[in-house]
Amino acid sequence: MNVIIGVADCRVSNDAEDVLVTYALGSCIAVSVYDPLTQVGGLLHFMLPEASGDARKTGKSPWMYADSGIPMLFREAYQKGADKRRLRVHLAGGAQVMDPDGVFNIGQRNCLAARKILWKAGVLVHGQETGGSTPRTVRLDMASGRFFVRSTDAPAEREL
Asked: By CB neighbour count within 10 A (0-12 exposed, 13-18 middle, 19+ buried), where does 140 fall?
């Protein structure tokens, strides 16, 4: 069953019938985690690199920011039985859309924020498709842990 993850949202599942999907990743980033032993996985769709230390922002929608959303994704996966040493992590998104001159570079900043958070936590990224200028859709198959990406400029989805 497709479980849709919206913008600034996240889901963690241990149901092998679930397929976690998020659409229209422009400058946003999808972070996927999956433990093949326990078949626990999750998908986060965050919008911005950080809440700038404003607890009121984080409290309203912690999934919106890399600095609050990524740690929460991992905590929820651990609570369902995932183990950090077995996690397969994928990133997608971070395109430069609606900012053709690169004034704000939100996509690039999002990607750097995610990589920095994961690096500090000692987490290896197993696959990544970020940057460019086209939106992406991603899906995580909970039965197999396979992670797929489809961009608007490609004829078919690809497995990372």
From this structure: buried
Q: Which runs of consecutive H residues, i.e. helices, occur in the chain?
A: 55-60, 66-79, 106-120
What is the per-residue pLDDT across 27-73, written as a single tens digit (0 to 9) for each?
999 999 999 999 999 999 999 999 876 556 556 789 999 999 999 99
Q: Kindly state the tokens that stand for 134.
A: 């086209």
The whole-model pTM stands at 0.93
What SS3 state is found at 79? helix
**Distance from C-alpha of 150 to C-alpha of 83, rounded to nearest angstrom:** 28
Quote the number of domains for the chain: 1
**Inter-residue contact 49 to 85 (CB < 8 Å):** no
CATH code, 97: 3.30.1330.200
